[in-house]
Structure formats: structure tokens, C-alpha cells
């Protein structure tokens, strides 16, 4: 560790210009100190200047954890690059920490590069409280095991020259510091601050701007390096948002009019967004009394001819299970969004995991065929809602959308979608039913049928979750159940026949094929690219459709010596005590692919409570290359 | 009529001069046991539908699971026979977006006061314009005689063979305890004129009309109201000019309580009493806010929505 002397004595030195294609920045604080606001403004300005960005939130589990504890670390991590950023990357290059405890949190999860630059508020070293001084010293000792360049900054003292309450100002000082080091455009920063504090007074805006300028000047005078990341001309048609905002906007674009929900992390921010804007579009967010009721209200509304969806996370999905079985059995179109978090049970409420795949597919009792899709990017979170509505209505079934906490809280720019008025069309009208039209007039080939909604003259029938015939009459003979089960199942085969095989990233054949789904696409493809640069014959495919599975997988798998899934869920490692090839519990996609293709699909999965790092996937690829050399 | 749902209205409704007889609402032949109270309720409901000339395709019955939840199958209207305890959320979703439909909810005592109790409380509070009948025979019938929350204490069932352990839940007390409840009534399956008059008052109330219908299950609880049936003095009719008016019952039921059905405290006091079985409207307040009205939003054309969304994207522009 290179501990530098404190603020006042840092002499201006010759500037070192670091020219890099990307850099990862973190700002961490206690909860409520505004680190996230600083990070968001920095990221937005970087995007506007033409850098690729990928932002993730660092979120404590509690709203207001006690100050100065590692578990309370709150903030943002922004990967800024010359090209579009598709994932959060490996390790952080530069961090600003408001106290040494939240810095320790990041150090302990190996978030920081070995040569990371660390700006740390050093008032704690000078505290009157001996416990705080002792904690500071212990932390510095722990941090000294790495080669961080630690730069103490008396942030609070600096801010006190401008404001009375430094807790309110440090984040903007830090923003100014970053603006200087990364050469961010001050005018854009001012615009962004104006937007970020649009609900506050002019005075608040002016004070924040002067704090940013203070941080900027301080860095100009005291910091001996700058980081230059080439920018490309900013694409004016880009929009920047997180995956939950994209889901919410997608719901509006898809013509949805009801979001029925019950609060649960990390899904809830979709409904926060919609609660703010939905009524302007003629839609409402119904906060139901529980998860079950949220599903029921959405089902009732959809049955009545509206476009409704319900949104939840793992435990909520479990509660909705019986109602989803009803929707599948009675062929009521319904979009269900599950923003996955760590499980089982309450699990890791704010952390990413992909372990609801099998529950999404198989949680219903009985045979309950339905569609499961997973957006891979934040952009896809928007478009998937349009697709999901279309599928739900065409195939009269439940469409489950599996997002996750990584997409929910990640922020990256993407091309502004081109909207289509046809997406907004009402699903059907109240025209009288045709002569002989039945509530389940299954086409014997496809299982598809036209639904009837209440209010249609001449269409009266009683919908029932009991086994029923085409006329919705309760079935008392076994033949009817066999036939109606076939009709509901057939729809998935029909849907699969309309899909195209997935595109292979990399060569069409080789030694190892990595298969992923959901939010890991950026990290997997980056790892594959790096492995290919090392000469490894690796390719990848990424699945959006999990039920039905995309076609052609078996044929693609046959062109590789080995197939391996990469997933954020738990699997046993062969070699662990008692674990054998026979009893090994595998990753959830691996389980599914083995069953459907009879290929011996391996898996590399982890549940670190954070997105997978491309470097870790690269290590896994190197370690799992099939023996026997070239294909 | 306002269609908030954006669906095409049925244009020829006014021209519909068809008169609906009770038989026009008959669905499949009812399969309840002979003597089941559900038959009386079905008849009273068919009479109400005809009296109010509800258009069958504009009328819908939502139910849960249990003997009484077979109700929609036996009517020629739209029906939704869903899952146990969850009729109310489904009805909420329907009414929220199709306020023009006549929506009835049929639940049993297990449906309403046990597995679906949470929905019951909140639906009372939402106060949507639903007519909600709880067919309370004090037992789980379809699953063969298990104790329900309203089973009398000491009653021997298959799950509590040495007699029910707990005092029964009083659904009227519960309903009257919920903020924003707007109509609470109790009637009995064996007094058809009172049953009909109560259903009609419930239907005419604009808001969540909760009616508990006391019933016997002819197989499992045939005698739970035997004393009241044999001795009409055990029944007290709540009378009020504005409530359920049944002069034809005066000769049989001499015990009458003049009750101001806008007085919630009095209603609660009556609901607590155990000396008589009180039948009639306990409480009514048509001024309580209704959720479907509170949440009403102006419909938008696709073009308007697309234009607004473009503006929304501008907020997120890089």
C-alpha cells in the first residue's frame, strides 16, 4: 500500500495521463449519504458524452443500516468504456469511499483491482472517538495486503467551507472529483444535476453545482493523474434506463392497462415507475392485499378483456402458483414478470440469481404448459413485454418473463425503440359470438381457440378450473381430460415451430459451447471473446425461450465436443464429498437441456450474490475445455 | 354508459326489448343434494335477475370452490368458477375494468371466512359495486364434513370428532369491523321472502353488499338452526323503512328490532348479541367511496399513448 499524506500537503505534481479503453468506478457510502445520486449523474453524463456504460447499484439489505458497518455499503459501480458495455465487468479501478468500513466491504468481496486507486474520507483517522480511530487503523492494515493506491481526502472539511451539513454535500464533491479525473463536461453535469434534483428548489441546485465545482478544483490542484477514455459521437437516438424501468415502459408500449402487484424486492421498482406515470396513459397499478390477490385481480381483468400483468419476485411467484395454474387451465392470457432474486425462501432479496427457472417452468401442479421467456439485456426488458402480451393472447396462456436483479438495477443505454400503434390494440371486442362458437373451440391441429369475454351477446358460459370440454362443461369422462390436456400442450409445440434456432456467438463448431440465459449474456460473450483471443475454440448461445425451448439445440450441440451452461444458480461440483456424476445436482438450464436433448451437458454455476464476472467465466472456460485438443 | 375499458359497447342494448323470465336464467340442472339451502338461494337469485331484468350476457357470477361455488354452472349468465377462497380478487379484476357488468360473488363459509379471509376484509374496504353472497352452512360439505370457522362450538366433524374447539367466527361482526364497509346484511335460506328481499336490497345498494345467508347442509349440519326453525321467537327481524321490508312475515316473526341502518355502533351492538338470530340489514352507507370510481382513469387512444410514450422516452434520452 502506498499511503499518501493527507489533503493539505499533497503537492501538485506532473500530470500522468492514463489512456484506457475502459475503467470501472465505484462510489460507496453509508446508506443515505447520496453515493447513488453521484454515481447516477456520473454515469448519465458519461453516456451523454458518448461512452458506453453499465451501472449497477450496491444495495444494503436494510433501509437505514447503522453507520460505518461493511454490511451497510451503498452506492454505484459504473463501468465506463469506449465501446458499448454489456455487463458490469471484473474489478473496480477507482473507488471513492466515505468511510473505511464500506471500503472494507468492497475489498472483502474482491471487488477492487489490485492496483485500484482509492479515495477515502480521512476524517475518521482524526476522530475524537478512540474506537473509530482504532477501526480506521485496523482497516488500513487489512487493506495493506493489496497494492491499492490509497489517497486520503478530507472531503467533509472541504465541504464545510460551503455548507453547514457535510453529510448532504459530500456526494457532489465526489462527483466534481470524478469529473476532473475523467474529464467530464461540466455543462452536462449541471444539466444532469438540474434533472436529478428537479423536485427540489433552485437553491438546492445552485448549492450542488458549487459543491461539484469545489470537488473539481480540489482534484485539479491535488491529483496527479487523469483518465482518458475515448468517446465516440453520442448516438442521439439512445435512451438510458434500468431494466425495471424498461419493463414498465414495455408494459405501456404493449398496450397494458393494469399492473397488479404486491410489494417485493427487487420487482417493486417497476410498479414505482408505473405508479408515477401509468394513469397518464389510462392504466393503473393495483397494489393488492397479497401476492395471490395480485394474480387474481390480473386474471379477472384479463378474463374480462383487458390487458393485465402481474409482477413479482421469487417468494411471490410461489404464492401465485395456484392462480397461474387456473389461468393455464382456463386459457386466460396473462403476463407474469418475475424479477428473480436469490432463494430459496427469503434468500437474498436484493441480489441477483437465476434460480427460479425450474419453478417458473414446473411449479404448477398437474400438467400446466405455458410460455417462459427471459430477456437477456435491458433493451430486451422493454421489447419482451410486447412479445409476451402477443404470445399470451395468441396462445391463450400464461407467459412468464424471467428478469433478475442484475437487469433490474443495471443501467445502460440502448437504441430508443420504435413504437407501433398496433401494439396498443384492444385484444378483442364485444361483437356477438359466432354461431356454434365455443369457449374452447380448439383447432384439433394446433389447440388454438378464440376466447369469449363477458358481455359478448350469446356467449354465456361458466369458466371453470375443473377439467372441461370445448364448451367449458365439467368433464366427467377420462377421454375429455386426455384431449383437453393435449390441446393445451399442443400450443407450445406450435409456438416452437414458429421460432428460429438461436444464433451461435463465435464459430459454428468447436471444442466448447457455452449456453446461457437471461442477464448473463454480456459477461458470457465477453469471456468467450477473450477465450477466443487466447486461441480456445469456444462459442456460446444464449436462450430467450425456455418454454418452449428454442429449436435446433440438439443439432447445434452436436457440432461441439462439449456443452456447458453458465448460470447464476447452485450446482454441485463433482469431486465434492459424496458428489458423483450420478447424484450431482446440476444448474437449472443444464437440467432442462439434458432432459430435452439427451446431450451430456455440463454446467458451471455460482451464487455469489452478484453478477458473474467475465473474468470468472473465462477461468471456468479454461478449466473446462474438453481434453483431446483440437476439434 | 361509460366504457373505461376501450372495448366496443354493445350498440343495440336499448333496442333489446326481450323480457327475461326466471327460466331464461336457468343453466345446467343443479346437482346439489335434495334439501340443500343452495337451491333456495339459486331460486331467489333467479327471481332477482328477472325482477331487475338483468341482461344475461351482461351479468356474471364469480365463485370459489365448494358446494355453493357450483352456483354459476346452474345459471345462464357468464360464470367464473375459480379456485378456493379467491373469488373476490377475480371479481375485483373484472369489476375494475368492466364496471358496466352486473357482478355477483358466491362464496361458502370456508371460502370467505377461512382460506379467503384476507381477501374478504380487503374487498369490504375496496367497496366495489359487487353483490356478495356468503352461503354459510357452517361446514365444509364438498370435502365431507370438516369444521369451518363458522361451525358451532362442540359440533362433531371429521376433523374435530370430539367437538369443535373454538367459538365460531361471527362474520357479521367481522364485516362491520372493517373500515369502509358499506352494506352488511344477514338472512336465512329457510325464509324465502326474507332471503329475496335481502338479496334485492343488496343488489340495489351501490357498493360492496355483503350478505351472509344462514343455511343448513342437509347431510352434515341439518339441525344447526333447528331451534330457530321450530321457534320463530328466536329470530329477530331488523326493521327499518329503508331496509328489508317483509310485512308478510309479521305474523310469524313477532320479535322485531327497529334499527337505524346508518348507525354503525348500533349495528355492531346488535351483531354481538346472542339471544336472537338477527336477520335484516345491519348497516348501509351508500356514500362510502368505491374503488372502481376512485381509480377510474380516462381512456386513451393508441395514438395518444404512443405520443405520450415518445415524450416519456425524451426523459430518458442520452
What is this structure, in a nutshell?
The complex is a heterodimer of chains A (631) and B (318). With 631 residues, chain A is of the alpha/beta class.
Q: What does this protein look like?
A:
The complex is a heterodimer of chains A (631) and B (318). Chain A is built from 19 helices and 22 strands. Chain A is α/β, with parallel strands linked by helices. Chain A has four domains: 222 residues, Pyruvate-ferredoxin Oxidoreductase, domain 3 (3-Layer(aba) Sandwich), CATH 3.40.920; 178 residues, Thiamin diphosphate (ThDP)-binding fold, Pyr/PP domains (Rossmann fold), CATH 3.40.50; 71 residues, no CATH class; 115 residues, Rossmann fold (3-Layer(aba) Sandwich). About 1% of the residues of chain A have low confidence. Chain B has a single domain, classed as Rossmann fold. Chain B has a nine-stranded mixed β-sheet, sandwiched between helices. In chain B, helix 1 crosses helix 6 and helix 3 packs across helix 4. The longest helix of chain B is centred in the first third of the chain and has 15 residues. Chain B is globular. The N terminus of chain B is likely disordered. Strand 17 of chain A pairs parallel with strand 2 of chain B.
Amino acid at each position: 500500500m502506498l499511503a499518501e499524506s493527507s489533503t493539505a500537503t499533497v503537492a501538485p505534481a506532473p500530470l500522468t495521463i492514463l489512456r484506457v479503453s475502459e475503467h470501472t468506478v465505484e462510489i460507496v457510502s453509508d446508506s443515505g449519504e447520496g453515493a447513488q445520486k453521484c454515481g447516477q449523474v456520473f454515469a448519465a453524463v458519461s453516456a451523454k458524452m458518448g461512452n458506453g456504460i453499465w451501472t449497477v447499484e450496491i444495495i444494503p439489505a436494510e433501509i437505514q443500516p447503522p453507520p460505518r458497518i461493511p454490511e451497510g455499503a451503498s452506492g454505484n459501480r459504473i463501468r465506463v468504456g469506449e465501446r458499448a458495455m454489456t455487463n458490469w465487468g471484473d474489478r473496480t479501478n477507482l473507488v471513492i469511499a466515505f468511510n473505511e468500513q464500506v471500503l472494507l466491504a468492497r475489498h472483502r468481496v474482491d471487488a477492487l483491482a489490485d492496483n485500484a486507486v482509492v479515495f477515502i474520507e480521512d476524517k475518521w483517522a482524526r476522530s475524537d472517538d478512540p474506537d473509530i480511530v482504532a477501526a480506521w487503523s485496523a482497516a488500513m492494515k487489512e487493506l495493506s495486503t493489496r497494492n491499492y493506491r490509497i489517497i486520503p481526502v478530507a472531503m467533509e472539511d472541504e465541504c464545510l467551507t460551503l455548507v453547514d451539513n457535510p453529510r448532504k454535500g459530500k456526494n457532489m464533491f465526489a462527483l466534481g472529483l470524478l469529473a476532473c479525473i475523467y474529464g467530464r463536461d461540466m455543462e452536462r453535469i449541471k444539466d444532469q444535476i438540474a434533472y436529478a434534483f428537479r423536485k427540489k428548489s433552485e437553491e438546492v441546485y445552485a448549492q450542488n453545482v458549487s459543491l461539484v465545482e469545489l470537488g473539481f478544483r480540489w482534484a485539479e490542484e491535488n491529483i496527479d493523474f487523469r483518465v482518458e477514455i475515448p468517446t465516440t459521437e453520442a448516438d442521439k437516438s439512445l435512451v438510458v434506463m434500468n431494466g425495471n424501468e424498461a419493463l414498465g415502459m414495455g408494459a405501456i408500449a404493449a398496450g397494458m392497462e393494469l399492473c397488479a402487484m404486491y410489494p417485493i424486492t427487487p420487482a417493486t421498482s417497476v410498479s414505482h415507475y408505473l405508479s408515477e406515470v401509468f394513469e397518464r396513459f389510462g392504466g393503473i397499478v393495483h397494489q393488492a392485499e397479497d401476492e395471490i390477490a395480485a394474480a387474481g385481480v390480473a386474471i379477472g381483468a384479463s378474463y374480462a378483456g383487458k390487458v393485465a400483468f402481474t409482477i413479482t419476485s421469487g417468494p411471490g411467484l410461489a404464492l401465485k402458483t395456484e392462480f397461474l395454474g387456473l389461468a393455464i387451465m382456463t386459457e386466460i392470457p396473462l403476463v407474469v414478470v418475475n424479477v428473480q432474486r436469490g432463494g430459496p425462501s427469503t434468500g437474498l432479496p436484493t441480489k441477483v440469481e437465476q434460480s427460479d427457472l425450474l419453478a417458473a417452468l414446473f411449479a404448477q401442479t398437474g400438467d400446466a404448459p405455458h410460455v417462459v421467456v427471459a430477456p437477456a439485456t435491458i433493451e430486451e426488458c422493454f421489447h419482451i413485454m410486447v412479445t409476451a402480451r402477443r404470445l399470451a393472447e395468441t396462445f391463450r396462456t400464461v407467459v412468464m418473463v424471467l428478469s433478475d436483479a442484475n437487469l433490474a438495477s443495471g443501467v445502460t443505454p440502448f437504441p430508443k425503440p420504435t413504437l407501433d400503434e398496433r401494439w396498443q390494440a384492444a385484444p378483442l371486442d364485444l361483437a356477438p359470438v359466432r354461431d356454434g362458437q365455443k369457449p374452447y373451440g380448439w383447432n384439433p391441429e394446433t389447440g388454438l381457440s378464440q376466447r369469449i369475454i363477458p358481455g359478448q351477446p350469446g356467449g354465456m358460459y361458466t369458466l371453470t378450473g375443473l377439467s372441461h370440454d370445448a364448451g367449458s362443461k365439467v368433464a366427467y369422462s377420462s377421454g375429455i381430460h386426455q384431449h383437453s390436456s393435449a390441446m393445451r400442450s399442443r400450443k407450445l409445440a406450435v409456438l416452437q415451430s414458429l421460432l428460429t434456432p438461436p444464433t451461435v456467438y463465435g464459430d459454428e463448431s468447436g471444442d466448447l459451447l457455452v449456453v446461457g440465459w437471461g442477464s448473463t449474456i454480456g459477461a458470457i460473450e465477453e469471456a468467450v471473446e477473450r477465450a477466443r483471443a487466447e486461441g480456445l475454440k469456444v462459442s456460446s448461445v444464449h436462450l430467450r425461450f425456455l418454454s418452449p425451448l428454442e429449436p435446433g439445440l440438439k443439432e447445434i450441440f452436436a457440432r461441439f465436443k462439449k456443452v456447458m451452461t453458465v448460470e447464476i444458480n447452485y450446482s454441485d461440483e463433482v469431486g465434492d464429498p459424496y458428489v458423483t456424476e450420478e447424484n450431482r445436482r446440476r444448474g437449472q438450464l443444464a437440467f432442462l437441456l439434458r432432459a430435452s436433448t439427451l446431450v451430456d451437458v455440463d454446467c458451471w454455476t455460482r451464487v455469489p450474490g452478484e453478477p458473474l464476472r467475465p473474468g470468472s467465466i473465462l477461468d471456468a472456460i479454461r478449466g473446462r475445455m474438453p481434453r483431446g485438443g483440437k476439434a | 354508459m361509460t366504457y373505461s375499458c376501450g372495448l366496443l359497447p354493445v350498440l343495440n342494448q336499448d333496442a333489446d326489448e326481450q323480457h327475461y323470465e326466471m327460466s331464461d336464467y336457468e343453466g345446467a340442472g343443479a346437482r346439489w343434494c335434495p334439501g340443500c339451502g343452495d337451491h333456495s338461494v339459486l331460486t331467489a337469485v333467479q327471481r332477482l335477475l328477472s325482477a331487475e331484468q338483468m341482461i344475461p350476457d351482461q351479468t356474471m357470477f364469480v365463485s370459489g370452490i365448494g358446494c355453493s361455488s357450483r352456483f354459476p354452472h346452474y345459471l345462464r349468465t357468464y360464470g367464473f368458477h375459480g379456485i378456493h377462497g379467491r373469488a373476490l380478487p377475480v371479481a375485483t379484476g373484472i369489476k375494475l375494468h368492466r364496471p358496466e357488468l352486473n357482478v355477483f360473488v358466491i362464496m361458502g363459509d370456508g371460502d370467505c371466512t377461512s382460506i379467503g379471509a384476507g381477501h374478504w376484509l380487503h374487498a369490504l374496504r375496496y367497496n366495489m359495486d359487487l353483490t356478495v353472497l356468503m352461503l354459510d352452512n357452517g361446514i365444509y360439505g364438498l370435502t365431507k364434513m370438516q369444521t369451518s370457522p363458522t361451525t358451532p362450538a362442540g359440533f362433531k366433524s371429521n376433523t374435530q370428532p370430539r367437538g369443535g374447539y373454538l367459538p365460531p367466527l361471527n362474520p357479521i361482526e367481522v364485516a362491520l369491523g372493517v373500515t369502509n364497509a358499506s352494506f352488511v346484511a344477514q338472512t336465512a335460506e329457510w325464509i324465502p321472502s326474507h332471503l329475496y328481499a335481502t338479496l334485492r336490497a343488496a343488489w340495489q345498494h351501490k357498493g360492496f353488499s355483503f350478505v351472509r345467508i344462514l343455511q343448513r347442509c342437509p347431510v352434515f349440519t341439518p339441525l344447526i338452526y333447528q331451534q330457530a326453525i321450530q321457534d320463530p321467537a328466536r329470530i329477530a327481524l331488523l326493521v327499518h323503512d329503508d331496509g328489508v321490508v317483509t310485512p308478510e312475515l309479521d305474523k310469524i316473526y313477532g320479535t322485531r328490532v327497529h334499527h337505524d341502518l346508518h348507525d354503525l355502533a348500533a349495528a355492531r351492538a346488535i351483531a354481538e348479541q346472542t339471544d336472537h338470530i338477527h336477520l335484516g340489514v345491519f348497516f348501509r352507507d351508500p356514500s362510502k367511496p368505491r374503488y372502481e370510481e376512485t381509480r377510474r382513469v380516462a381512456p386513451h387512444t393508441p395514438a395518444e399513448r404512443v405520443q405520450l410514450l415518445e415524450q416519456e422516452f425524451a426523459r430518458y434520452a442520452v
